[in-house]
Amino acid sequence: MDMNTVTDLVPTVDPADWREGDAWLAGGTVLFSYGSETLRRLLDVTRAGWPALTVTDEGLEVAATCTVAELYAFPDAPASAPVRGAWPALGLVRPCCDAFVASFKIWNTSTVGGNVATSLPAGPMTSLTAALDGVAEVWGPGGGRRDQPVAELVTGDRRNTLAPGELLRAIRLPARALRARTAFRRLSLSNLGRSGVLVIGRLDADDDGGELVVTVTASTRRPVQLRFAARAHPDAAGLAAAIDAAIPADLYHDDVHGLPAWRRDMTYRLAEEIRRELLDSTSTTDGGRR
What we know:
By secondary structure, the protein is of the alpha+beta class. 26% of the residues lie in helices and 23% in strands. The chain has three domains: 8-44, no CATH class; 53-176, Uridine Diphospho-n-acetylenolpyruvylglucosamine Reductase, domain 3 (2-Layer Sandwich), CATH 3.30.465.10; 180-279, Enolase-like, domain 1 (2-Layer Sandwich). It starts with 7 loop residues before the first strand and ends in an 11-residue tail after the last helix.
């Protein structure tokens, strides 16, 4: 899509440079697909030189400019070797990347931060980072910086809490979540279609049984997390009641990729499958891809 209103491409990561009519540019796959009649400048963050993925004592830092291809390669990359066995939740990375159902051209260009900032209900990087309690680092004009959980940053279909000029710098995934056992379920109305329902479960690795976290995305307009304390894990009825309480009827997404009633029914079904998988001590720890 040509954007013939754009007059300047400015290499910068300083929110102080932002002005009305600007847009941050990372991969730009959505920006150039949708086009614009109002943009005047693109602020290019791709030359920032931020490391795509950094293992720290606290967990994994994912730069906003990390591409889908870089993230997909990480579980087998040399950089992950020291934590590969200790972080079984890395098993979620590839099924979430596969949920893009996009070509290698998109994978090599589209970024983690761009997918979250676009805030589509089916955004798989929102699914991944929200499910792992990812915390977004946001830079703002005037030197301000703030942290916000990804599950709270995305507030609706193409809606989020980013104010004009704010820049998503990175998402930090805590080691506590990466050490957890996980389960993944996704449904689409077509073999290569956009996600209609995507549910991720996580059972933290604590001695007392661990917190159970179920994160619902794609079927809802924003991420919804259900959290059950250790030794208070739900049965099937308890999980269904928690979904009832957390997701009102008008929160289910409605578009050509699935009617709200179907998304609601499949959310119950996939969440229950995940509950059984994670609370069964004989389950595997490979991410539960299905």
